[in-house]
Amino acid sequence: MNFKLLYLYFLMIAKLCTKNLFGAMLFLSCAVIFPACTKQEEKRFPDNSALDPGSVPTVKIENYVNRLYIDFLGRVPTIVEMNTEVSLMKSKKLSRAAREDLIFRLQNDTTPVPGEGSYKQAYYQRIYDMVKARLCEGAADGEFTRYAGLAQFSLNVARLNGDSIGVFQALEQIERHLKVVESRIHYRDGTIGINEMFSRMLDNSVYDIINMNTFNFVRASFDDLFYRFPTQAEFESAFGIIETNKMGKILGGYASNKREYCVTLTSSREFYEGIIKWTYLNLIGREPTTEETYTHFEHYYATNDLQYLQRKIAVLDEYANF
User: Which of 1, 96, 180, 303 has its CA 20 to 30 A from that of 165?
Assistant: First the structure.
């Protein structure tokens, strides 16, 4: 459209406005049409390019490395480790691949490290300590072995008295408490998943003492795993399962005793959602959005790979603060 001619026509109509009503009507119509015919300004969007590594100060890279060592190993890096990792990050332009490679090494490297065995051993000790902190208020391993020792004494007495039921109960008590302490090694070696570690942390005398009686136990188990309390129907079913060994349905599964209840809860789909939330809270300090939970859920539910989930969160710019 020739905007110069349109502008001249607009001036001519404006003159007619002063002479008759018809001219005024034409003027109003042109006033409406003219702005619509003008060229619109080009829309501009902020730059969405990749991170410029040169714009990230060294101190921020050091803070990122420091945070990774604390979150994954429970300690700060040595000067040598810090200098090595910062140089490596810079050489690879702070790429997400470089970040994920560092996290993977912290989780899996078996090279001997003075004072902690290896990165891998320190990492799995860290996971074990975090789960204990979440469910058992960070109780020392000695607390669990103490209950195993008490059960061992009961076992000796039951054997002397020929009490077969007492023998069975004592053996069960010994096993359930030693399994808590052994879960760190079993999880590290891949013989159990994180589900079983959480299940063992629920099924022991330390957790029972912290959450005295069945009412508190049921509410605490839901809160610790799912960050919510049970519905009335869930509570009634869980209470019957634990208190009277009554077969009941809970979270899509069935259980008839406390041990089965713990396994059913930690095998449910909601448990996987709870782990995603737990991981976000530990690493970023906030709950995941619905979209973030959806993004991670199917892969995590299919693989039960907590290490992969952690890497995908800890490579984010939000975590790195770049």
Answer: 180
Q: What is the DSSP string of 66-80?
A: HHHHHHHHSSPPPHH
> What whole-number distance in Å separates Cα of residue 67 and Cα of residue 239?
42
Residue with tokens 């029972």: 208
Position 253 in a domain: no
* Structural domain span for residue 80: 57-121
How many whole angstroms separate alpha carbon 180 and alpha carbon 199?
9
- Tokens 């607009």 correspond to 10
How much is the mean pLDDT over the chain? Answer: 89
3-state helix vs strand vs coil in the chain, percent to 5: 70, 0, 25
Two structure tokens written together for 239? 């209470």
pLDDT tens column, 93-107: 999 999 999 999 999
Compute the distance between CA of residue 108 and CA of residue 106 in angstroms, rounded to an integer: 6
**Domain contains 260:** no
Residue 147 lies in a domain: yes
Cα 304 to chain centroid, rounded: 12
Closest listed residue to residue 130, CA positions, set 70, 77, 176: 70
Indicate yes or no: pTM above 0.85.
no
Residue 81 domain flag: yes
What per-residue confidence (pLDDT) applies to 52? 81
How far CA 296 is from CA of 228, 267, 304, 305, in Å, comes to 20, 17, 11, 11
Amino acid at 118: S
71 contacts 285 by C-beta, under 8 angstroms: no
Torsion, Cα of 89, 94, 95, 100 (10° steps): 50
Query: How many domains are there within the chain?
Result: 3
Cα angle for residues 43, 48, 53 (degrees, 5° grid) = 145
